[in-house]
Design a protein that fits this description.
The chain has 293 residues and is an alpha/beta fold. It contains 7 helices and 14 strands. It has helices spanning 10-22, 46-51, 62-72, 88-91, 114-120, 156-180, 212-222, and strands at 2-6, 26-32, 56-58, 76-79, 98-102, 110-111, 125-132, 142-149, 195-196, 229-233, 236-246, 259-262, 267-270, 275-282. Strand 10 and strand 11 form a beta hairpin.
Length: 293
């Protein structure tokens, strides 16, 4: 089976490496981006290709990609970790179609920023789903799906690692099943479909009147490898990478947003219901007891 592979983030690399080293599929070409101003977890695949003598293309636009696919004549396209929608002219060319990846329990939570939304909303489970690409994003028949339970203090980095581990196992089994022609696709139930919208900068702003759970979830959702949650102080954004919740009596007379204890590298602040200790932050800000954020 001849695969044309498309991707430009860390999961793209991990899945490509798993396929190349654990299946009999032939990787006939790889499409990637050597530079990206969009993906926080950007990872160009061209180094892997050069080390393993695989032909590769530095993506410019879909017209360029379409011509390359026509020349390569793949049996199937794998598109994992790609921020651009593929026109149907591209994914309809291969005999076996094209496969995409989405880290949720499809048909639930289609759409944008799935890892971030999962943690920001405080969900206790998610999934890892491989599916056929169609004209409707994330709506094609499911080829492989695994359920994943989140820990109480899960953050973007730990969840990302779990999804990589599970997804690597899935893509090996999926590829071998496609080669053996034993895979049975499962249609998605449209009545259960939900969608997540694209997030903006305002979605990452900490309002200290929020509950301590909501603040912790927001910080955990946007921590590395993503851009970080933030609050504004004197017109400048201060990035928050890590917090913890504190239980403390006698805070009912303290206003949300007031710092009650501080040193050079951490501070304790009143949230909407409890105390929050900010353990890791970045920016032009010196915390001081008694100031308001």
């Amino acid at each position: 089976m001849k695969i044309l592979y498309i991707g430009c983030v860390r999961s793209s690399f991990v899945f490509l490496d798993a396929i190349y080293n654990n299946t009999h599929a032939e990787i006939i070409g790889v499409v990637t981006k050597t530079k990206s101003n969009y993906n926080a977890d950007h990872c160009s695949l061209h180094h892997f290709c050069e080390e393993n003598q695989i032909d590769w293309l530095d993506y410019r636009d879909n017209e360029q990609l379409l011509e390359w696919v026509k020349v390569k004549e793949p049996d199937i396209i794998y598109c994992f970790g790609w921020s651009y929608l593929l026109p149907n002219e591209i994914y309809q060319l291969p005999m076996l179609g094209a496969v995409g990846y989405h880290p949720t329990l499809l048909p639930q939570n289609r759409g944008r920023h799935p890892i971030i939304w999962t943690i920001a909303l405080g969900l206790r489970e998610t999934g890892s789903s491989f599916f056929y690409l169609t004209d409707v994003p994330d709506a094609g028949d499911i080829l492989s799906q695994r359920r994943l339970v989140l820990d109480e203090f899960e953050d973007a980095n730990t969840l990302y690692e779990k999804l990589l581990f599970i997804g690597k196992e899935q893509v090996i089994d999926l590829t071998n099943s496609l080669i053996d022609r034993t895979l049975i696709p499962i249609s998605q139930d449209e009545s259960k479909a939900t969608y997540w919208r694209k997030r903006g900068k305002h979605d990452g702003r900490i309002d200290w009147r929020m509950s301590s759970n909501a603040i912790r979830n927001l910080v955990n959702a946007l921590t590395r490898p993503y851009i970080g949650a933030h609050f504004e102080y004197e017109g400048k954004d201060i990035i928050v990478w890590k917090v913890e919740q504190l239980n403390a009596p006698y805070i009912q007379n303290i206003e949300p947003g007031k710092i009650i204890e501080a040193n050079s590298d951490s501070f304790i602040i009143r949230s909407g219901d409890k105390l929050i200790k900010v353990l890791d932050f970045e920016g032009e800000f010196v915390p001081k007891e008694g100031i308001y954020l």
